[in-house]
Protein 1
Amino acid sequence: MRIIKLEPLFLAKKVLLLASFLIIPLIILNAEENIPLSEAAAKWKAVFSYDPLTQTGYILRNKDLVRFKKSYPVFLLGKDNALHAEAIIDNSKGLFIPESTFNAISAYFEEKDKERTSHFRIAAIIIDPGHGGKDPGAIGEFGSGKDKFKIQEKDIALAVGKDVYSSLQEKWPEKSILITRNSDVYPSLDERVDMANIMELGINEAIIFISIHANASFNKSASGYEVWYLNPDYRRTVMDDKKSVGVDSQVLPILNAMLEEEYTTESIFLAKNILSGMKKTLSPDIPDRGLRAEEWFVVRNAKMPSVLVELGFVTNEAEARRLADPAYLKSLSEGIYNGISDFIEYFENRKGNPLH
Ligand SMILES: [Zn+2]
């Protein structure tokens, strides 16, 4: 056995050398593991916000929200899921997210994307024949004596609405197909919209709302059909305040804007489909007045893709007489039904921005 007496300096060098092997990789490892949050957000194509006062923040990607508190190893995913992961830290250079946490949140976002793209379906369709009961809607009256001819919007809307409703029921027995009235009664506008808004929907489910009306004009020559959707410039509050308890107040406007955009896009797409469906079944000499954007009450308050169809003008005699013909109403309802069907088939097979 040989005893080697080490010189103190030599020993120090050895320790230093050993330490450098241990420490340098640690530093490198550390540098790899923590990603600046801004970089992580860019990778996710997300936005993030941090409030140094409360030391809380959020990461928002599409509609998926992740909330965090600095140095706290729990993240809130969406409304009620918790993720236990290494905390976001704040060093002198700003906020950093550990790589393992980055990966866990990436997995969450991917999962949410998958949920949205896989078997997205229209769970319910609500057909809303306008007016009814005490409210006849627009009225067209022509001639006199025994030639007197009168037509009411509420009757046309009901006939077409019921036909569209039963065709949809036949085609999609597994979907909830609802009609706001199937007789000459008057549900209030609130009642019509509530019927839609109280429906329980799964995360991948949507509901569409189609209101059916007929037009009137002082210009007796005005005729033709048109489809209305919500004006995209109109900012409605889509999210129910009650449902959003616990979400940062600053997040709500962002979420609202995004939901708004989504529904508007889908409403426009639904409106386009219905319009082209009608164009195909109606004779080419019936004027196609195109897509219109407005802030209709029924459409505005419906928190879903929703459109309003104007079948024609009861104030134009030739059109009023067409609208009194069951065969013409049948081609109108067929056109609407085909348009809704095309929309559903497209929507359920390819979720995303349907206009692109
Ligand atoms: Zn009307």
Protein 2
Amino acid sequence: MQIKSSIAIFSLCLFGLLGSAWSATPTGAALCVTCHDEEDLPDMSKSAHGFSADKRVPDCITCHGPSPTHAKKPADVSERPHPDRMFIRKFALPANERSAVCLGCHNKDPKRALWAGSQHDNADIACNSCHKIHGNRDKVLGKTTQPDVCYTCHKEQRAQMSRPSHHPVTEGKMTCSDCHNPHGSAGPKLVKRDSTNDTCFTCHAEKRGPFVHQHEPAVEDCSICHNPHGSTISPMLKTRPPILCQQCHTPHVAGGVGAVGGQGGVAALVGSTSAGKNVVNIWQGRSCLNCHTQVHGSNNPAAVSPGPQFLMR
Ligand code: HEC
Ligand code: HEC
Ligand code: HEC
Ligand code: HEC
Ligand code: HEC
Ligand code: HEC
Ligand code: HEC
Ligand code: HEC
Ligand code: HEC
Ligand code: HEC
């Protein structure tokens, strides 16, 4: 007989399990499902861990242990002993031991190579804090359903994502794992690549440069100026210019306060009022960005250093 569909394989295996349950004293996983039938447990037949002809796929015992006294309650005890390994509720194994069960099989993928000692591992978050085994739909794997899983613990990020200027996560076009590897990272804050910037460049490649004139903070870390989740200040800025820029620079316009070298250039560019003050009020319009349009770096060949930079396209 040639079996073509996985459904056929599934029913064959389930039949195999139940078959042995009918024919002789059931053992192993077949014993478990005599009590834990489909009425008791949610259907997981279509999940990656559903009964399968594939020997690599775990069954009840691989994860929960053989649990002999649980499956066959000894006559001399009043209450049924617990199974060997539980993953939820009061008698669950410690987080690292629960994760060890999963890592027994899932330790080869490079995506999970940095799990040990990662922020989640250190905080006693286990694989099953995010992944649901019993069921056909693991919410954390779905692009649109994933954020809700994360938000159960990370409430602040939900608030940030609902600010007016945000990455389109609430719109379902992006998800947390587009930027984070929740299984561990060589970069800060579990970012997906080895650094925050490399993570941003996966989608915003045009910001990578290299530029003739680099702007140091943009080379260092995009999140110096941007909140990657969301902000009330567009586009996702942590602070509004000019304050954003004045964290590092002395203002050189608006009445000549704190003039720096280059004041003449500014005057030439913007002209002067009859009172002799610069006409541009840095608190208006796009502030510093009225003139410095290229804050991520510029290839303007007219720029001389030190001198005007990040000015024109
Ligand atoms: C003779 C019936 C029977 C058999 C066989 C049986 N169980 Fe159970 N199991 C129970 C009962 C009853 C409970 C308690 C259900 C409850 O409290 O809701 C339970 C609970 C559990 C729980 C949940 C414990 C918890 O509270 O988190 C797990 C896990 C479990 N069984 C796994 C297994 C595994 C694995 C096998 C096979 C090795 C197995 N069971 C075989 C009857 C059985
Ligand atoms: C891949 C590992 C794995 C396999 C295989 C597995 N379980 Fe579980 N089981 C878990 C985890 C993790 C939980 C915690 C709830 C969840 O993730 O859905 C759990 C929860 C349970 C519970 C408690 C459910 C509840 O909501 O109260 C029972 C009962 C149970 N398993 C029995 C079984 C039986 C019977 C089988 C075989 C048909 C089985 N498990 C196969 C990992 C596994
Ligand atoms: C006996 C080996 C084994 C164990 C133990 C095991 N898995 Fe798996 N798991 C597999 C196999 C095989 C697959 C399907 C092939 C693949 O994607 O690698 C799979 C797939 C998955 C997937 C991908 C599902 C999908 O739809 O793509 C997730 C998530 C997962 N396992 C999580 C877990 C978690 C969490 C545990 C511990 C509670 C666990 N596994 C324990 C073997 C195992
Ligand atoms: C903080 C939540 C979280 C925890 C904890 C977690 N995962 Fe995941 N896992 C995810 C998310 C999100 C995805 C989907 C995106 C991705 O592949 O990174 C995923 C995907 C997977 C996949 C399938 C994707 C693939 O690589 O094809 C497997 C297998 C898996 N996780 C296993 C594990 C194991 C094993 C552990 C524990 C050592 C674990 N996960 C802990 C969130 C988590
Ligand atoms: C069960 C609770 C829980 C879930 C679910 C969870 N996390 Fe976490 N997460 C934590 C804890 C606890 C820490 C470590 C303490 C901290 O920094 O907040 C952490 C740390 C982090 C960090 C690193 C923070 C830092 O300061 O280095 C990131 C990023 C993160 N989680 C993202 C996610 C994403 C993305 C998801 C969903 C795929 C997720 N988490 C799901 C509890 C959780
Ligand atoms: C566009 C990329 C991106 C997306 C999408 C994203 N994050 Fe982040 N996240 C980051 C970066 C970058 C940092 C580090 C920020 C920093 O260093 O100030 C971070 C930091 C965090 C932190 C650590 C606390 C903090 O603010 O420093 C948590 C927790 C977190 N993210 C959770 C999430 C969750 C949950 C989601 C999905 C709802 C998500 N992130 C979506 C890029 C992203
Ligand atoms: C997975 C792809 C992806 C990654 C990774 C990513 N972004 Fe984005 N980014 C987007 C998308 C999609 C938009 C929305 C574009 C639109 O609405 O037209 C966006 C928009 C933006 C905007 C402009 C928002 C606005 O209101 O115009 C900023 C700023 C931004 N991203 C910064 C970052 C930073 C900083 C990082 C790294 C922490 C990053 N992005 C990582 C996809 C990504
Ligand atoms: C010095 C502060 C600063 C740093 C650092 C910075 N940005 Fe920006 N970014 C801004 C400002 C200000 C704007 C608004 C520019 C405008 O309106 O002309 C902006 C706009 C954006 C936009 C939307 C408009 C556009 O130009 O596409 C994206 C996307 C963006 N930044 C991505 C990044 C990425 C990726 C990094 C890291 C490589 C980064 N930014 C680093 C200040 C910064
Ligand atoms: C985190 C600190 C920081 C922030 C925030 C910052 N810069 Fe810079 N900026 C620097 C550093 C460092 C340099 C290179 C050293 C220098 O020349 O002063 C630089 C260089 C410049 C230059 C070129 C200076 C020259 O000598 O040619 C301009 C113009 C500039 N920044 C404008 C801005 C604007 C506009 C903003 C706000 C959108 C801003 N910067 C935000 C740190 C910062
Ligand atoms: C009206 C246009 C204009 C505005 C607004 C403006 N700048 Fe400039 N800026 C210039 C010009 C032109 C130069 C080059 C001057 C020169 O070198 O002769 C310059 C030079 C600079 C330099 C380099 C100074 C140096 O030592 O050569 C920095 C840093 C700078 N601006 C930051 C800012 C910041 C921060 C703001 C907002 C608070 C701002 N600029 C607002 C036009 C402007």
Protein 3
Amino acid sequence: MADQVAGAIDIGGTHIRVSLVSDRGEVLTAATLPTLTGAGSAQVCVRRMHGQLVRQCAQRGLGLADLRGVGIVCAGPIDCRRGEIHNPYTLPGWEAYNIVASLRACTGLLVTLEHDVNGALLGEVFLNSWQGKRVLMISFGTGIGVAVYDRDRSFRAGTTYHPEMGHVVVDACLTNACYCRHGGCFESLWSGSALQARAQALGYASFDDLFARWQAGETAAQGEMERLQRYFRAGVWNLMTIFKPDILVLGGGLMQRYYDFCAGLIRRDLDGLEDFVESYQIFPMALEDGSAVVGASRLVFGDAALTA
Ligand SMILES: [Zn+2]
């Protein structure tokens, strides 16, 4: 039997990936569109997504109606249940835009929306055959995105199904600014952009510079790196003790360079604490760029247990 095919769309703050993905997780076609922001930009982007889906179907000798549906993953905050985007931080002008209804109206297909970190985790679960496991993913990028796959479904919280676990507080005495209004939250300390800003405020060229100087044994870098490691251990500890996952996935741009360092830190920190965290494995994200579109396709093929 021929593979079934889904449209898969990953909407980020700078670009939008549009792909066709088979039910075996194979990315068949791919294109990248620029993300437009501001009034009316969502409507323009949806027209372009539709155009891309039509074009990519034609490349594969398919019509739009041959697709099983379209899965969209998007940078939050979003309301998966209503199909709306509420993200003034990276998608200004898209607020309250119902992307599910819009894309359904122009394609005639079933359309499903999911948070991008949940989508990436669904992709990782599928690509690694982790169905039946409990998997925690922490993605260190511009912010910190956290998602949990609990055997057959994505962990949900609140009415919009968008947990905010990247904002767990790791040092309540800090008064640094975060848009969550809680100083000392994990994201405000350990997102890629937070580390960069912090290192630069201390006079280093970048976080890479601070890290390299610490590794080289420079005395001035020791105190700051010790502090940062304490914050990292606290953030991961909070999440690991709450979810006790079988598998921890570390993803996001920061982990392309610091996976080994961070995985080592976690292993040392949790060593001997099996009463608290049980046995677990740590992996880097398998497909840094591709997991989200594969995850978006899994929304269509029905292994995401999305219903409320
Ligand atoms: Zn925060």
Protein 4
Amino acid sequence: MAGTGSLLRALDCRACGATLAPDFVVGPCPSCGHTLLARYDLDRLDGARWFRSLGERPPGLWRYRELLPVRDAAFITGWGEGSTALLPLGPVETAPGVEVLVKDDGGLPTGSFKARGMAAAVSRARELGLTELYVPSAGNAGIALAAYTARAGLRGRVYLPESTPRAAKEACALYGAEVIEVPGTIREAGTAARERERGRGSFDVSTLREPYRVEGKKTMGLEIVEASAPGALPDAIVYPTGGGTGLVGMAKAFRELRSLGLLDRSPRLYAVQPEHCAPVVRALRDGATRITPWEDPRTIAPGLLVPAPFASERVLEAVRETGGAGATVTDRELLDAMRSLARHHGLSVSPEAAAPYAALPRLLADGRIRPGESVVLYHTGTGIPFSADRLEQEIAPPPR
Ligand SMILES: Cc1ncc(COP(=O)(O)O)c(C=O)c1O
Ligand SMILES: [Zn+2]
């Protein structure tokens, strides 16, 4: 065995306090059904030395292998994903005086940040001996599962809402995954998936229903800290929020880095959602500890059409513990942001990934972000499969 040096120690449930040994197949907490999160033996790591050593490691998310769940390097599956660029966007008219940076995950294998989570989850699934994985998805997670199961030689099944863009369905099929279309949103796709898969010996890699995708997403936060000059950590990260795994992952990264003595404050995390599907933003505004499902959800951004995020307690906690907040954007603002980023900055983003840019004026107007601060817009996925003209037709005309 080629050990990775992973310090994985246990799986903890923050909801009921259960603690499990990590080297068995497990989905949600067997006691209460909430999310299990990986815990590492951080006191066995000399934080400062470890952080310095990163500079000598090859690029990619496995450079953080001590803080990732795979124990034997032979099971690592992927295409060198990670170490994406963190670059200044340049002056932004709608955010005068703010230093705007973009963390660009559009160039990851499969075109979105979902590659990070699936790289971790599929590698760990292989290590634990699983052979058949399934996921309900709005598109990108399904494409990533399809690609990583293909790379690993495992079977993948993807449950997609019927309304998923055709390019996404075709991409999953091209990688050899079985594609099942379900009427409704990802919520209905999830219900259908769990019903159909019962008793088949397959494993559910839905957002936060297993412990390891979020570990891959954690590398988003680790990379932002590693790429920032000492003392120049960004003040805020603005994130397009559907299921919220990215937020949970980044908050976990900051928690672990704080435990290692490598961080004294976290960037504030801002959750951006579409105005007609904003359960997380509403719960943040109302001071609730969990979301209530959104009725009649609508948006042109498929990955943000998540009316009832599974682990909303963890998502809300992630935003609150960093001192962040929520903001909504309209579909019109998403489409304008997509066009603006492409035309003025040469950046192709999906409608989801346009949300942070679209939210900037509101975050400034609300005093959440102030001139003089530095803000990372998290670019979660490429816009290349999307037609702006088709999205234009999807935006319902405003009622007269
Ligand atoms: C491009 C893109 N951005 C953002 C999201 C939302 O991600 P999260 O589940 O971390 O909130 C998705 C989810 O499908 C997505 O595909
Ligand atoms: Zn529990």
